Amino acid sequence: MSYIEVNGLKKTFTVRKKREKGKLLREKQTVEALKGVSFSVEKGDLVGYIGPNGAGKSTTVKILSGILTPDGGEAKVGGKVPWLDRKEYVKHIGVVFGQRSQLWWDVPIIDSFSLLKDIYRIPKTDYDNRLKELSDALQLEELMRTPLRLLSLGQRMRAELCGSLLHRPELLFLDEPTIGLDAVSKLALRDFLKWENREYGTTVMLTTHDMEDIAALCSRVMVLGHGKKLFDGKLPDLLEKFDTVRTVSVRYDSDVLRIDMPENVKCEHKGEEYILTYSPAEFPTSRLLKALQDAGNIREMTLQPENIDHLIASMYKEMDL
After folding, report:
1. Is it true that domain 4-240 has CATH number 3.40.50.300?
2. Which residues of 282-311 are buried (b: 16+ CB within 10 A; e: fewer)?
3. CB atoms < 10 A from the CB of 24, how many?
4. What single DSSP character describes residue 111?
5. What angle do CA 157, 168, 137 make, to 5 degrees?
6. What is the CATH number of domain 246-305?
7. Nearest Cα to 171, choosing from 222, 146, 206?
8. % helix / strand / coil in the chain, to the nearest 5?
9. Which of 107, 122, 149, 229 is the most exposed place for a label (fewest CB within 10 A)?
10. Where are the domains of the chain?
11. What is the pLDDT of residues 5-55, one digit of tens each?
C-alpha cells in the first residue's frame, strides 16, 4: 500500500453571500471544494499539487494534515486516518502555510523552537543536533535571538521551515511556501528542500502557484480544478500539449538574401537580427534549424520556448478553470 492513500475525498462548505440591500438576512451558498478526489503518493516522493485559486488544494492539505474532516471518502497516511488519529498522527508530519505562522510573533525564534521541542517531546541531544543541522542549512545562526516580527519575509519562511522540521517529520506539507520571496530566497529554499528530501527521504507535498518551484522540485504533478483531479503525471508531459509557440532569434556572419520558411512561420527582420515565431506541432524544430543553417553561417542563435506560466495559463483556459 502507498504511503498516502486518498479515495473519493469530498468536502462542502456553506458560505454566506453579501447581504443584499433591503434584505435582513444574508443568503447561504453551498460550495463543493472537493468532489471525489483520489490519488496515492509513495514514501519519499516530492509531489506538486497545482490548480487555480479555489480549486481545493488547501482544503486537501488541511484534510491530510488533520485540520479538517471530510464529508465523504477516505484518506490514510502511513496507515493512519489524519482526522481520527490526529494526536498520534501529527507527531510524524510538518506543515508550512505561506500566509500563516506557527512561531510566536514577539519572541526570539530560538524560544519558539525551544517550545516546539517540548511540544513534540524531542530529546535534548536530538534537538541540539537537529537545530544545528537546520540552522546551518537554512542560515539561521545569526537570527536566533531576533523576534519573528523583526525578520524579513524570506528569513521568516526559513525559520518556519526549521520549526516544522525539528521533530524530523516523515511528511512535509508546503502550502505556498515561496509566496512573496525574492529570487535569492526562493533558490535557497528550493536547494534546502531537495537536500532534505534526498538526505532523509522526507515525503513532500507542495502546493504553489509558482511553476518554477514545481519545475525545480517535483518529478510528479497533480492538477486540481473545480474540486476534481484533472491530471496526474510528469510536468513535461503536461506542458508538451500546451507548448504551442516558440521564438527563435538568429544573427548571421553576413547579410542573408533569403530564408525559406513556410507561411505558418512568421519571420521578422530587425537590423542584423531575424526573429522567427513558429509552432512545433506544425513545423518541427529540427526542420526550422536546418532551414536557418542552409541560409548562411550563423553567428548567434537563441531558441526561446514559451514561459511556463504562459503554458499553465493556457492549460487553465482550455480546461475552463
Report:
1. yes
2. ebeeeebeebbeebbeeeeeeeeebebeeb
3. 5
4. H
5. 50
6. 3.30.70
7. 206
8. 35, 30, 35
9. 149
10. 4-240, 246-305
11. 999 999 999 887 777 776 767 778 888 899 999 999 999 999 999 888 888
